[in-house]
Design a protein that fits this description.
This protein is of the alpha/beta class. The protein folds into 2 domains: 120 residues, Rossmann fold (3-Layer(aba) Sandwich); 106 residues, 3-Layer(aba) Sandwich (Rossmann fold), CATH 3.40.50.1000. It has 9 helices and 16 strands. The protein has a 6-stranded parallel β-sheet, sandwiched between helices. It has a 4-stranded parallel β-sheet with strand order 7-8-9-12. The protein has a two-stranded antiparallel sheet with strand order 1-16. The protein is globular, with a radius of gyration of 18 Å. Bound molecules: magnesium ion (MG). Magnesium ion (MG) binds next to loops.
């Protein structure tokens, strides 16, 4: 068994990379198991700030790769780390799910209706009142921070409007754009990884199916990058993009050569 990518920490995107909706990508769980058995650190990086990390643990474990909580890294964690280190003691008005708000509370981030910062997350419980309050705060000049830039989140019921689309709405109503975006491909996501792991950048690889989030994240932060063609990117899209991943494979299964 030979690994084609020389790294100590493997960061995997989830949807389109290790599974498609509720179906594991063929051979993906076996590959993850082999990497762990080789002593490699395997983590999953998701921009989704609407869910509890335990949901991903349950999902991956039920698909056949047992996961611990430390292996799940979300844009919520990147946002919390950014707030702790760069905006200490500033209060936030969260536009987010109850799960998201509970995480902020557990992390002792001050929450207020008249906050210093509007913190926009993937809010699948969004109401008109929340948008209205966020808009009023932005018009007052309060800082605007978003957890991630994705415009849609794929689901088996069709694409869900995600944070990037809500950013566009608030930009239209308030004339304000976020000063900081936390998730892939932006640097706060790399800062949380540097905070969690003492591993040199060259020994880290980002594996994912999206050029403008996963692969740019790897390139922007000095990691190696693996584009897999099991999700949204085709060879034609890759060629037209001008983005150059370190490796391109059909699936994560191809990262390991069986002998
Ligand atoms: Mg993906």
């Amino acid at each position: 068994m030979k690994l084609k990518v020389d790294a100590d920490l493997f960061l995997f995107d989830l949807d389109g990379t290790v599974y498609l909706g509720d179906t594991p990508i063929e051979g993906a769980m076996e590959t993850l198991g082999k990497l762990s058995a080789m002593g490699k650190k395997v983590c999953f990086l998701t921009n989704n700030s609407s869910k509890d990390k335990r949901e991903y643990v349950r999902k991956l474990t039920s698909m056949g790769y047992p996961v611990d909580l430390w292996q799940i890294i979300t844009s919520t964690m990147a946002a919390v780390q950014f707030l702790h280190t760069r905006r200490p003691s500033k209060s936030v008005y969260p536009v987010g799910t109850p799960t998201f708000i509970k995480t902020l509370e557990e992390e002792s981030i001050p929450i207020s209706d008249d906050a210093d910062i509007v913190l926009l997350a993937f809010d699948t419980t969004l109401t008109y009142d929340k948008l209205w309050r966020a808009n009023v705060l932005l018009e007052k000049g309060r800082e605007f921070i978003a957890t991630h830039p994705d415009t849609v989140c794929p689901s088996d019921r069709g694409d869900m409007p995600d944070v990037g689309s809500l950013m566009a709405l608030l930009e239209c109503s308030s004339g304000r754009a976020p000063s900081v975006i936390c998730g892939k491909p932006h640097s706060p996501m790399a800062e949380i990884i540097a905070h969690l792991f003492d591993i040199p950048k060259e020994k880290i690889v980002m594996v994912g199916d999206r050029l403008y989030t996963d692969i740019l994240f790897g390139i922007n932060n000095g990691y190696q990058s693996v584009l897999v063609l099991s999700g949204e990117t085709s060879v034609e899209m890759l060629n037209a993009s001008g983005i150059k991943p370190s490796f391109v494979f059909d699936s994560i299964r191809d990262m390991i050569e069986d002998d």
